Amino acid sequence: MRKFSSVLACLLVTGTLLSACGGNNNGNKPAANGGDGAPAPAATTASEETTAPTEAPVDDITQRKVTIKIHYPTPDLTEVRAQEDDKIKRFQEVYPNVEIVKDDWQYNVSEIGVKMAANEAPTFFNTYATEAKFLVEKGWVADVTDLWNNYEFKDQINPVLQNQFIIDGKVYGVTQKGYVTTTMINKKMLDAKGVAVPAMDWTWEDMLNTAKGAADPKKGISGIAPMGKGNEAGWNWTNFLFEAGGEIQKIEGGKVVATFNSEAGIKALDFYKKLRWEAKAVPQDWALGWGDAVGAFQQGRTAMVMAGSDGVIEQALNQGGLKPEDVLTYPMPAAEKGGKHTGVLGGDYLVINPNATKDEQEMAFRYITFDYFSDKGLEALDAILQQRKADGKYFIPPLLDYYAADSEFGKKTKSVYDKYSDIVYQYNTDIMALLDGKPEAQYNTQDYYATMSNVIQELFAKEGTDSKAQLDAAASTVQKKFFDTIKVE
């Protein structure tokens, strides 16, 4: 469940240009992407011939006028808008029959129903990994299985991400990029306090000791800033639920049953109590949303923050003035030595409006995948890196992108990054072997996050809370208000 700041949204669009990132995010911030009938023709890539044949078959979609309303960046993202405008121009050179209407509406779970009812939703729009079941069950996303099956590069798409929008064997969206929640550490702050950098294969105890050692409450410096406001508070905590071996929910007898009030949940909540009251490592002003926590990290007011890596590092390096060697990216800590470094797996997706015509759905699919796996996408990436270098800014690639890292295109992308190794942030090579991504729950995830946020706030505000009682009450609320209304087929 992820919700992104403007900077992270910018990176997401850049990831799309690379063509080529998933609630907001409980670690990136909680969220926080064709149609029926006969199989559609394979999607045309940007590198294909752009001249239409002189004698096209009457059923050739390129010979019919089609209008699509596209997902467009918000006004504050001027650089990203310029990049999208360039994509529009290139797309219309290949498909001059397509009229493009820009729509900067950003997906919001409280608005999508109204948009659909009024037939005002774009032809395609962005959404998050948490929304797949919800949108499919509401009938608010098109089944694009035929378009997907005819897509030339489907086998090079990152399966870990794409599978979030494949439900019962049908495809309902295209991944842009994703994340596994990680922990970013300000090494400069650790060095200043003489705190040793923990091993990459670290544990909760290591996190506790590192946070305690880096904290300086009298100076307003925290060792770690767990998010304590908004749905992201519940999202951040869920990483620890997963690490302790817990689950959010289970399906039993055709019903969704809350399971987070388990021994694992109690263990995870007790760890938060240790960070807050034993180590005194949490900010005194703990009511921090995603932007607040990331801002504190950027400004050197907290030594650690938990989120999707690239958005945090982007702000730390390009706005906070930190150097790449100062910002370390770690997997989430294991509950105990030898345990899994599980982090919430989320992502960003583009989905197609089911109310669109078959032609509109096909052109929307072609637009979404236009730069994917293309030479134009690599050229766009190279241009972005050139500009970053000219502007004296760093570029932070996502840990997980839309393409499989070991695919042919993944290798080509790495070769472009290698040309600009002085400005491209380098992740520790050991991290990928330790990352363990666990998908967010598919039913009412945002409602669960919101309920758990209230629990986290009570824990941070009042010492001596009863973890079991808190979790039992929260599970009862989620069960009665949300899960009991769901009937699983």
UniProtKB/TrEMBL annotation:
Q: Which UniProt keywords apply?
A: Signal
The UniProt annotation puts the region (Disordered) at: 32-59
- Please indicate which superkingdom the organism of origin belongs to: Bacteria
Name of this protein: ABC transporter substrate-binding protein
How far does the signal peptide extend, from start to end residue?
1-19
Kindly list any coiled-coil regions of this protein: none
Which Pfam families is this protein grouped with?
Answer: SBP_bac_1
The yes or no answer to whether the keyword Zinc is present is: no
Database matches in PANTHER family: ARABINOSE-BINDING PROTEIN-RELATED, SUGAR-BINDING LIPOPROTEIN
Q: Which InterPro entries match?
A: Bact_solute-bd_prot1, SBP
Low complexity composition bias: which ranges?
Answer: 32-56
